[in-house]
Structures are given as structure tokens and as C-alpha cells.
Amino acid sequence: MNTPFVEQLNELYPYMLRFAQVQLRDDSLAEDMVQEALTAAWNKREQFNAQSTLKTWMLSILKNKIADYFRKTPVLMDLDILKEKNDDLDITHDNYFDETGHWKEGFKPQEWHQIPEQYMQNQLFFRALEECLARLPEDTARVFYLREVDGWETEEICQQFNLSKDNCYVMLHRARNALRRCLQRNWFNEH
User: What CATH topology corresponds to 2-72?
Assistant: First the structure.
């Protein structure tokens, strides 16, 4: 069966798998979630009415599958262990971010222009970012990804993972610091 719909799903597969791997930190489970999302999309393909892109629709299905998994599998965080893992992430926050968590002037990343050489550099940068995300504690990376990449509201994240807003903000703060340091070492110093 080689329909245009199947071809489009095949093109989205690597992107969906990377998304699931960052969220779940388990390659096998990520593969299962992507397969479930693809199966659901295939079974509901008549419902896709192109009001959004296929990629947006598929990610929505995948996000729901992952959210269902987390609802069924409680995420228990030992705050003492989390504190130990993240203590060093607080060191540079005040230097780079203001009180609202936004970049301070002079530290904000520059906008990129999409000429071919820069496009390739962007791709390499995002690979480095994914590697840095993989080095974060699992829960911290998941919260950061949902907030900063997927655009979830803080309240949604807190509800999903049974976190207080303060804990969520601390995790985001630590993730930003750790990612900045990791990218400084593994990307900016090399390019």
C-alpha cells in the first residue's frame, strides 16, 4: 500500500520518533508510542480534514498517546535526588536570564538567516541541542521540552506531572542553565 498518505506518514516518522525519544527517554517505548500514533492516524485518516498540517495533526495524536501513557503510569519524582542532580544547574542563571526567565540583553541567541550554509549549521546545532537535552535529568528534560519546544502552558505541565508551579519553574530554570553550559562547551566553543 503506497498511497500519498502513507508516504507522508513515512516522511514524518523520524521527526515523531525523535520527539517521542526526548519525551520518554526510552527508545523502545518511544517506538511503541509512535506506532500507536501511526495506527490511530491510519484508523482515523478520514477525519483528517487538512485544517492543520499533517505534521501538526500527527504530533497532536502522538502527544495524546504520550500523555495517556503518563496518566496511566504515575511519574514519581524523588525531590531529594532531583535536587542533587540539579544543584549545579543554578550557578549561572542570574547572569543569563532575567527574573521572568527570559534571556538578558547581550545573551539572547542571534536570529539565523536561512541561507544554505546556515541551514546546515542550524541542523547541526539542533543535533547538539538534542544531545544536551539527553544529558539533563529525565524529568527536567521532559518539562523543558514540553514548555519551550511544544509550548505547553506551565499549568498543563504541573497538572500532567503533579508538580507545584515552583518546582516546575525551578526545573525550567535549571534546564536553561544546563543547556546553556552544555551548548557553550559542545557547540559555541567548536564553531
Answer: Rna Polymerase Sigma Factor; Chain: A (1.10.1740)
Q: What angle do CA 191, 136, 151 make, to 5 degrees?
A: 85
**127-159 tens-digit pLDDT:** 888 888 888 888 888 889 888 888 888 998 888
Topology classification of domain 79-187? Arc Repressor Mutant, subunit A (1.10.10)
Q: Is the pTM of this model over 0.70?
A: no
Q: What percentage of the chain exceeds 70 in pLDDT?
A: 77
Q: Which tens digit of pLDDT belongs to each residue from 106-117?
A: 776 666 555 667
Q: Where are the alpha helices (DSSP H) in the chain?
A: 4-24, 27-43, 54-72, 79-86, 93-96, 116-135, 138-144, 154-161, 165-183
Distances (CA, A) of 178 to 69, 117, 126, 132, 153: 27, 27, 16, 8, 21
3-state secondary structure 129-166: HHHHHHHCCHHHHHHHHHHHHCCCCHHHHHHHHCCCHH
Q: How far apart are CA 33 and CA 19, in angstroms?
A: 10
The label of the residue with cell 495517556 reads: 68
